[in-house]
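Example 9 (inverse folding). The structure is encoded as follows.
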């Protein structure tokens, strides 16, 4: 087990004293965590990404209990996502005009097969899935495979590009029943982070499977790149 740094040890100890709090308080505590560091312990030197995680009472092994979706957060995520699009015909110009970083067909697929993965989102028009399908082994494990449920397989590629450039994010329950998603940067105001998390949580709640029994949300945590999580009461 890796040795815990003095900085992280101090932060975890303080986070533990906070306990479980409402969302607004969790945001405030997370943003002020590093101000609680002992004298002589350096704070993180970059604008950290904030992430919200929810532990759900679902069985991910059951196809009808998979919780998956996408949402355009009210205040974006604090960075511009790199978007590639598989398209042909009129959709090529439409995707480029919307701001796609790269648009192509078989040549783009070959480039990805050769190891190029310098992008955050993959979008494809339905007529290009024959080209995209074989990339499943490369894109799937990295969460980059286009999907109709996520809105990344669509005829309106221009709209999809604009949404992801504006801060749309995808989420999917993992094998442990957890949904975790980027919700912005620590430099965001308390109000911006709170609104982003609230929007994501509302979306997750709306996707509760009919077959899910008992308690749906079993826990929630707000954390950042180099900060421990704050337990959130939902």
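The amino acid assigned to each position is listed next.
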């Amino acid at each position: 087990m890796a040795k815990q740094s003095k900085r992280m040890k101090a932060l975890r100890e303080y986070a533990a004293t906070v306990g479980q709090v409402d969302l607004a308080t969790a945001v405030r505590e997370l943003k002020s965590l590093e101000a609680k560091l002992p004298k002589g312990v350096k704070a993180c030197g970059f604008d950290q990404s904030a992430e919200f995680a929810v532990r759900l009472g679902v069985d991910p092994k059951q196809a009808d209990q998979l919780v998956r979706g996408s949402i355009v957060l009210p205040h974006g995520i604090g960075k511009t996502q790199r978007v590639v699009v598989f398209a042909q015909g009129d959709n090529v110009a439409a995707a480029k005009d919307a701001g796609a970083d790269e648009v192509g067909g078989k040549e783009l697929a070959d480039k990805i097969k050769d190891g190029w993965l310098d992008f955050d989102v993959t979008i494809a028009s339905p007529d290009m899935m024959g080209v995209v399908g074989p990339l499943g082994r490369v894109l799937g494990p990295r969460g980059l495979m286009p999907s109709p449920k996520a809105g990344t397989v669509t005829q309106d590629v221009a709209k999809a590009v604009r949404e992801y450039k504006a801060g749309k994010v995808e989420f999917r329950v993992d094998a442990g029943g957890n949904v975790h998603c980027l919700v912005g940067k620590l430099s965001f105001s308390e109000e911006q982070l709170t609104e982003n998390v609230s929007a994501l949580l509302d979306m997750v709640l709306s996707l509760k499977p009919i077959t899910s029994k008992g308690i749906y949300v079993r826990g929630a945590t707000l954390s950042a790149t180099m900060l421990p999580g704050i337990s959130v009461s939902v």
